[in-house]
UniProtKB/TrEMBL annotation:
Residues 1-144 form the RUN domain. Residues 187-204 have a biased composition (Basic and acidic residues). Residues 180-204 are annotated as: Disordered. Keywords: Coiled coil. This is SGSM1 protein. InterPro entries: Run_dom, Run_dom_sf. Residues 38-65 form a coiled coil.
Length: 204
């Protein structure tokens, strides 16, 4: 939603087309005429929209007890609302499309637009490189904050941690060493390192 707001801010009326309900779709289609990556994205999103529309029509025309909807990705209303941006992100082309818009901003945007700004425009395109590099194959569950890691992961963590410990006693937990601060305010760095190791070891 935030990316969509940034991309649509200061957009010229003729760039999105008059009376278009989905401005982001209209913009991407217009970009697709001169940018092949955007053109391919448009085809994919339109196919997905067709599937969603067919599923809705089939669901409305069939009685409740025998209703069968074609298998679709589990899309929330919010996801469907931002389907174009979301698909561009999953297909790893969102950063490239935004970069193209920044480079050709005078064609699509008014002077006060975010993507017309010589600093903010390129920064937005650069910020999207990270999210576009991720693989969105498995989403976190609602209880992911409370579930414990698997045994394999805990063993792997322990091995990684053990490799950083001292060689003389890798399994021995380092003693917690607390040193009072001197009046001058100086303090040796070693106790803080020991405390950090202790906490890490305790966590493992």
């Amino acid at each position: 939603a935030a990316v969509e707001c940034c991309v649509l801010f200061g957009l010229k009326r003729r760039a999105a087309g008059f009376l278009r309900s989905n401005k982001i779709a209209a913009l991407f289609m217009k970009v697709g005429k001169s940018f092949p990556l955007a053109e391919e994205l448009c085809r994919k999103v339109q196919d997905l929209e067709q599937l969603i529309e067919n599923a809705r029509n089939q669901a409305q025309g069939v009685p409740e007890n025998v209703r069968k909807v074609p298998k679709l990705p589990n899309l929330s209303p919010q996801a469907i609302k931002h389907l174009w941006i979301r698909t561009a992100l999953f297909e790893k082309v969102l950063d490239k499309i935004v970069h193209y818009l920044v480079e050709n901003s005078s064609k699509y945007y008014e002077k006060e637009a975010l993507l017309m700004d010589p600093v903010d425009g390129p920064i937005l395109a650069s910020l999207l490189v990270g999210p576009c590099a991720l693989e969105y194959t498995k989403m976190k569950t609602a209880d992911h904050f409370w579930t414990d890691p698997s045994a394999d992961e805990l063993v792997q963590r322990h091995r990684i941690h053990s490799s950083h410990c001292r060689q003389d006693s890798p399994t021995k937990r380092p003693a917690l060493c607390i040193q009072k601060r001197h009046s001058s305010g100086s303090m040796d760095d070693r106790p803080s390192l020991s405390a950090r190791d202790y906490v890490e070891s305790l966590h493992q």
